Amino acid sequence: MNSSKGSLRRIWFFMKGQRLAYVGAILLVITNVLLQYVGPLISSWTIDRIITGGDMDVPAFVVNMVNAIGGKETIASNLWICALILAVLTGLRGVISFLQSKLLTTASEHTVRRIKDELYSHIQDLPFDYHVKAETGDLIQRCTTDVETVRRFISGQLVELCRGIFMLIVALFVLGRVSITLTLLSLVLMPFAILFSWGFHKNVSKQFKVVDEADGNMSTVLQENLTGVRVVRAFGRQEYERQKFFGAIDKLFEAGTKLNNMFAFFWSFSDFTAVAQQAVTMFGAMYYVIEKGMSYGNFLLFNSYVGMLIWPLRQLGRVLSDAAKMSIAMGRIDQVL
Fold first, then answer.
1. Residues with Cβ < 8 Å from 159, sequence gap 6 or more?
2. Do 219 and 141 form a contact (C-beta atoms < 8 A)?
3. 3-state secondary structure of 68
């Protein structure tokens, strides 16, 4: 955990000059999340307040909008208005997603360029003894693959972490206003998912390091062979070099296969937990409709929001695993710097 914090501090340093762009992207993500939650609310209100003629127990600005359109009766006889609003919201979310992606892509490329410039300049100034002992293939690995790992994290999971936290807060707030009991029921399996994700993060961090080192070793063997291929041919050492490379590939294959198996188990368990949680919430909501008189609109709202409630916690594993990869990659970069 301390390693991850240190890596984030280093990334924050390299983000200099692009920090406002990252803040802007996070604000766009928050706006997108809010719009994502508005859709199910509109559907719920349409069913409970417009179609079934219930009380307009909604925020004042919504009542004013309904009255401006012509009142509940006008909307009830022209439900295409609600569909049009949902379509406009979807289009607006698409525009916001485009702007967010553009900001993140530009900012992350500038950040990575700064890391690469710093790495290359520093390598030029390192003493002769360092280059005698250093493996060229491993240095190439740190300057390319490890830097790309950092770029993927800051252009994706860093903002996704903010998205997940905000989605969780908004979902809990809205669902809690409908039914505290059902909201707690919607979280009953979440502690198990969080504990499992944390345990997975600790184990996968070690395996990422093994894979990264095996990949670096394979790159070193390949680079040395290609650089000295004329010497290899002159002394007839092709078979020796071939077996040496196959050995490096086998180690990388074994490490990568173990990592993929770990991910396969993790995502299978995560999917099972997510589906089981949705089933528990569905049965609870059905009971409330039949026995407690919960409205169909609120039933629809819970079924729509429970997926949004589960998604951030399910995504936690991906964020933690990518954070582990980033931390290891940033650590390898720092070893050079």
1. 22, 25, 26, 29, 100, 104
2. yes
3. helix
